[in-house]
Structure formats: C-alpha cells, structure tokens
Amino acid sequence: MELTVRSARRYVDEIPAPLAVVGVWGGELSEEGQKLDTKNRGALSRMLEELRFKGELGETLLVPLGKSFGLLFGLGRKRGVSLETLRKAGAKLVAEITRLGFREAVAETFLADKFGKKEASYALAEGALLGSYSFGKYKSNPEHKKLRLWLARSSGPAVDRAQVVAEAVNYARDLVNEPPNSLTPAELARRAQALEALGLQVEVWDEGRIQAEGLGSYYGVAQGSANPPRFIQVVYKPQGTPERVLALVGKGITFDTGGYSLKPNESMLTMKCDMAGAAAVLATMQAVAKLKPQLEVRAYVAAAENMISGQAYRVGDVLKSLSGKTVEVLNTDAEGRLTLADAITYADRQGADAIVELSTLTGACVIALGEKVAGLFSNDVRLGREVQEAAERGGEKVWPLPLEEEYREMLVSSVADLKNVHGRSRYAGAVIAGLFLSEFTEKPLVHLDIAGPAFTERPHALGPAGGTGFGVRTLVELLGV
Fold it and tell me: What whole-number distance in Å separates Cα of residue 287 and Cα of residue 476?
C-alpha cells in the first residue's frame, strides 16, 4: 500500500476531503468531533447515542454527512492511554479507511491536548505509516492501493520525522522479508552501497580481504557457503566535531542452516530473518543520513551464510579471532557470535566510544522473554540505561538481563581460549552468549538479543507477518534526533 501522510494547520471541519475522522474517547466525542458535529447539525452525536457507540480502541462508525462522510474512531478508555495507543490507533485507522475504500481522508490529531501536538502527531503518523506496510514484491498480482491522509492541526516537523523513521523501519522489513536466494551476502552489500547516494561512506570487503585482515572467527563460519561473505562498513560523519563515536553492529547471517549442527526443518523456515540485526543497523544509517545527528555513527555487518559443504567448519574446529583469542567450536549453530566477535573487535579498533550490537542470537532469549521483548545485556550501566530509555521512547520493548560473571567459567575451553557454547548444559544460554561477545571489547557495549521480536509469523498491531524492523526506532531515539 502507498500511504502519504501530510500535516495541516486547519481543523478537521475546515479541510475538504471525502472522509473526516474524529475521535471518541471515553465514550465522548473529542473537541474536534464536537465542532464537526455542530457543523452537521448533530449528525455524529445522534448516531453515537442511538447506536450506543462506546469507542473501544479501533472501533469505528461511519456516518453520512451530506456529500461526504464522518468516521467516528474509538480511542478506548481514558485510563491507561499512552503514545503506544496512538501508534496502534494510526495503524488501525489506515486499515479501516482502506477497507472502506477511501483514497483520501482527513483525521484529527488524536489526543494532542493530552500528549502535546508534537508527540501526538509523531506517534499517530508513525503508526499509520508502519501499519500500511506490505511486501508484495514476489506476488504475481500484488494489491496496489493508494491513500492520502491529512492530519489536522498537527506538527509538520514531527510528521516529517515520522516519515523518515517509518521509511527506515520498512526498509529493514524489506531486507528481512527478501528470500535468501535473493538476499545473499553480496546482495546485502550492494543494498548497503546504495546508501552512498545519501552521503554516507560505504566500504565492502570481499572474502580475500576478510581473510587477509585476520577476521578468522567470522570467515570460519562463512567458508562453507558457495555465496562468499562480505564485510560491510557504513560511516556517517557530522559537520564539525562529533559529540562521540557510536558503533552499530548487526548480525548479518543471510541464511542459517545451523551448519553441521543442523537445525530441524521447522526451525529453518524463518532463518532468512537471521540478518534482522544487520537490517536494523543499515536502516538506521538510512535514517541517520536524513536526520543528521551531531555524533559520528559507524555501522558494521559481517554478512555470511551458515551452510554445509566439504569446506564448512566443523564441531571441534578451533578458530582464531581478530582479537587474537582462539575459539573452540562446540556447536556450529552458535555461528552468529563468532561473526559478531570479529565485527565488535574491529569496531573497537576503529575508535568507537561505545558499541551497540543487535542480533537474532539465541532461542534461549525467546524462551525467557517471548516474542515481543528483546533482551538487553550491557557491560556499562550508563549505556545500558540509555538504550533502555531510548527503546521506551521509541515504543519497542526491551528488558535488561545480567552478564553474570560467575558464569564466565562455562566459556573456558581446555584446548583454546574460549568455546562458543557452554557445552551440554542448556542453562543461561542467552547470558552465556552475551558474555562471549563481551570478551571482544573493553568499550561500553550493549548487546540486544532481538531473536523474539525481529520476526513474526502472525500479523501484529503495527504491521503484517514477517520482518518487524525491530531495533530501528530504538537506535534512532538513542541518537537523539
């Protein structure tokens, strides 16, 4: 669906459109609804009363108003309403307008009096834009619907920012939803190189350069595939002296069979999403290029496939990482942490002041927190708090989990410096993975395990099944733009 959201300074009843949308909150017409009702001789209030319309969140009632229509849109109860309510309302609103067949509509900026014009405009526009997403690239006859939505008395800058962020989230969704035979490591690198058009610096290393630079842990994972790896670096530099240098690292396994520790078929069905961390990081760089924060932002993606062949790495292999530390492989399906170890070390050596890494890393985190919440691990309390607060502002759910030092002994190998899993025990799998990553930098590090919320097999409040673009909104908020 092609949605255009525009800001307008006038009231709903002053903007000519075939459909005018006003809110019903706590069972009562909003102030703008009352103005539209007065202009139409009480048509809205009569229908509201006659049909006993209570206005639960997303509930609608279409009312004829002469040559146009009014749509009463429920915002639910006054108690417990939040900006997340507005995001969901935006998505539901677009779905309902589209269902009714309108191509243009004007809606009031719901709850602007409660949250402020800027915040309400942003949340409503973002929800609408995220809710309108669809991925029909490989359909023979995809639906192509257009809608122009005006937000009355809204904040223009807030709507514009929502457009940039939603476009970035949907860019990440597109990457995750691509089939793995199309989105190989080389193709992901080409998508990253296209960001140069936005003024970003992009560098891509091929397999020869990766080996020559000593990224042995990463290359060990990649060596089994006929599709060679690509190490992707994207840099944004602000005008003037940056406030700090922030590195973003995203897991870029474009398909994960599990290697010789082969996954069952059911677990492999969604493994095209194992590059969701990379998608979020590259999408954030797209937003960064447009929003222009006053800090330097660098993105790193170690893109690879984890496949089986005569050249694939094996259980029992010992790999030498860029840091110099050696790693004994006890499970080839714990491949993401091996690629991320080298990417994190490289980000550290390039002068990052802090590193935020996103990865669909462990099923253990999904077991702990479910499909809606990401696990947050940090070796630095301040940075961890920054990321958690950014997630709250962005409407994404994360929960802090401990990097318990007493568990570090589980990573000690008898033949190498480390082992990539803690052996036969299934306890604390997500914590162990976070501890492994923390071995490869002394800089402030946040590891977000997004294995749960990065991909959904069912439609959700802000979009359809598939990639969710999780993490983009958190990172944009962290950048303070």
Answer: 7
